[in-house]
Design brief:
Layout (H helix, E strand, L loop, with lengths): L11 E7 L2 E7 L7 E4 L5 E8 L5 E8 L2 E9 L5 E8 L2 E9 L5 E8 L2 E9 L5 E8 L2 E8 L20 H8 L3 H14 L4 H7 L5 H14 L7 H6 L6 H14 L4 H7 L5 H14 L7 H6 L6 H14 L4 H7 L5 H12 L7 H8 L8 H14 L4 H8 L4 H14 L4 H7 L5 H14 L7 H8 L3 H16 L1
Antiparallel strand pairs: 1-2, 2-3, 3-4, 4-5, 5-6, 6-7, 7-8, 8-9, 9-10, 10-11, 11-12
């Protein structure tokens, strides 16, 4: 008698000869051992029950001379039915039904000597129909129909041909060395649209690598995978970050049909799903503009990372986000104003830079220092196109705005040197001091301004002190 438990576990065997049969319990010291009877020849006979380590039944059915016979039922660890059907001489035969762990039916059809035959129906985990068609000798054959998770029909699939060509490729993707499995990604992608239902099923495979590679294959197939979009969005809840990222890339490759699904998940209960949905929309760029109203709502999300993700996504979508960010930059909440400025920074269209700068400049006068700091940093990232507007603020009567503008000019670097040199001669002391200080922070890149600083140094007093500090910083860099 062989024991399937770990060799480190104690092997238990108890036997009693009762009425010509040997009553046996075989197992290990972890969990409940399988329970059933043996015949006089040591073959499993009659009813047997197997258990998970948590004590729940795993499967139950009858043996006849050591092979499965009659009805068998399988369960998930939570006690929910997993599959049920008949065996004949150890092979599945007749009607079988399979369920998801949440109790929804997964698939149903007939086996003949362990091969799928005749009409089979499949369902999504939410109860919607998934696929329907005929098996011939274990392979899908003829015309199949399929539906997305929200009930939208696929076009007809696999018309007039079997699936024997696809089955070995799916198996190759599921098992074996990683290099071989990755090769299967390209091979299945060449099959195209008719591989999509199989790949959708693999998104729920128990193997993490299989789920990831299924998503990567859907990405390679591209827009022909469009009706897998709902299933890919569901993969945002996968426990593996690699699977989640692959699902995101696949949705980007699908493009426009993905947007409605991503938009729905922006109010998911899971903050990681909300964040990844926003990031995916951002990667899609301008075509995701229809999701901007929902993204703008997430600027006030309860999770800071989700708020920032929404802002960055809006910037990545481009100029069409400006009206939404324009409203947000005037919001009563400082954190929303900060995020709106950060989002505006991502809009890189030359035709809209003046508009973006114009929306940021008032933030340099904000009463909240963090808002001013964000505006200063963002304007410095825009660079030369922001210089003229920054100079006007620099020469304004608002001291805190002067400082924010000076910091931005220093971060812009060499293109701002003429403006800062002019500031060294301004009539206001604070402008002269901050101009010198900004040039000093620029280090060696401000060497062309040394003569202007030396002229200021000769003025003596506070001018001379700050000029000397700046000259020393530049020369020592």
């Amino acid at each position: 008698m062989m024991n399937t438990c770990s060799t480190r576990s104690a092997f238990l065997w108890k036997g009693l000869l009762l009425g010509g049969c040997l009553l046996g319990i075989v197992g290990c010291d972890q969990g409940i051992p399988p329970q059933g009877t043996y015949d006089a020849d040591g073959n499993k006979q009659g009813k047997w029950t197997y258990f998970y380590k948590n004590g729940q039944r795993e499967r139950e059915g009858s043996f006849l001379q050591g092979v499965e016979e009659g009805e068998w039922v399988y369960w998930y660890p939570n006690g929910q039915r997993k599959q049920a059907g008949q065996f004949e001489t150890g092979l599945r035969q007749g009607n079988w039904t399979f369920w998801y762990e949440n109790g929804q039916k997964f698939k149903e059809g007939k086996f003949q000597r362990d091969r799928q035959v005749g009409k089979w129906n499949f369902w999504h985990e939410n109860g919607q129909r998934a696929r329907s068609g005929v098996y011939q000798d274990g392979a899908e054959y003829g015309e199949w129909l399929a539906w997305s998770e929200d009930g939208k029909p696929y076009s007809q699939l696999y018309a007039g041909q079997g699936r024997s060509d696809l089955a070995p490729l799916i198996q190759k993707l599921q098992t074996g060395p990683l290099a071989s499995r990755r090769q299967a990604v390209s091979e299945i992608a060449e099959v195209g649209k008719r591989a999509v239902p199989e790949l959708v099923s693999l998104l729920r495979d128990s193997d993490q690598v299989a789920r990831m590679l299924a998503a990567e294959t859907l990405a390679e197939i591209g827009d022909e995978s469009s009706l897998a979009a709902g299933d890919l969005v569901r993969a945002f809840s996968d426990r593996s970050p690699e699977v989640r990222e692959a699902a995101s890339d696949a949705l980007v490759a699908i493009g426009m049909p993905s947007i409605e699904y991503l938009e729905r998940t922006l109010d998911s209960n899971n903050p990681e799903v909300r964040l990844l949905s926003a990031a995916t929309l951002g990667k899609m760029g301008e075509i995701a503009a229809s999701a901007l109203p929902a993204l703008s709502n997430n600027l006030k999300d309860r999770t800071p990372a989700v708020r920032r993700g929404a802002a960055l996504a809006m910037g990545a979508i481009g100029p069409k986000s400006i009206p939404f960010l324009q409203k947000a930059v005037r919001d009563d909440l400082p954190e929303v104003r900060i995020l709106a400025i950060e989002g505006l920074t991502g809009i890189r269209s030359p035709d809209h830079q003046a508009e973006v700068v114009g929306l940021m400049i008032p933030a340099l006068f904000d009463s909240v220092s963090k808002v001013r700091d964000q505006a200063s940093h963002s304007l410095s990232r825009i660079g030369e196109p922001a210089i003229d507007s920054l100079i006007r603020v620099f020469y304004s009567d608002e001291v805190e705005a002067n400082l924010a503008a000076a910091i931005a000019l220093a971060e812009i670097g060499p293109p701002a040197l003429p403006a800062l040199e002019d500031g060294l001669q301004n009539s206001r002391l604070n402008v002269r001091i901050w101009s010198a200080n900004s040039l000093g922070k620029m280090g060696a890149t401000a060497r062309p301004s040394l003569s202007a600083l030396e002229a200021m140094e000769r003025q003596g007093g506070d001018d001379g002190k700050y000029a000397r500090d700046a000259i020393e910083a530049i020369r020592n860099d």
